[in-house]
Each structure stands twice: as C-alpha cells, then as structure tokens.
Amino acid sequence: MALFPLVCNFEGDFVLKLLPVDTEQTMAEVGQAAAVNAVGIHIADQPGKTIYARKEGSDKHFPLDMKLSDSGLEPMDCVKFYFA
Description:
Layout: E1 3-10, E2 17-22, H1 27-36, E3 51-55, E4 78-83
Parallel strand pairs: 1-4
Antiparallel strand pairs: 1-2, 3-4
C-alpha cells in the first residue's frame, strides 16, 4: 500500500484534478474516487453506466479489476475517466 498521485480528468469536465489513490486499489475503485470530485459537480451522473479509465493519449481503457500498481502508470500521469 502506497499513496499514489494521479492527475485526472472526467470526460466533459473542464478541470484537471489531483487524485490521491492507493497502489492496491483497482481501476474501478480509482474511477469511483475520481467520480467523487466530478460527477454531480461538473458533469452529470449517468446511472447504469460504468466508469472506465485510460491513460491520456491511449485508446484502450484499463481493465476494471486491474490494480493500480499493475497499470504501468507513473505518479502524476494524467488519466481520463469516462462513462460507457
């Protein structure tokens, strides 16, 4: 377990945010943590849809069950979150 800072942006949000998460969290949990500061504040909730994450510049999203420590992300990498 280690604190891990990411820069995050939710699709449709105009603000980049610092997101402190834990290396043992899954990407689904990281998405939920990112949603706390964006969904319902800067973007509308989309009930029934799943939050996915992908590294900025990548077309592929991370598997939801992948641990952050296995993602290959570096501290302060920018991660895009979106509903699908």
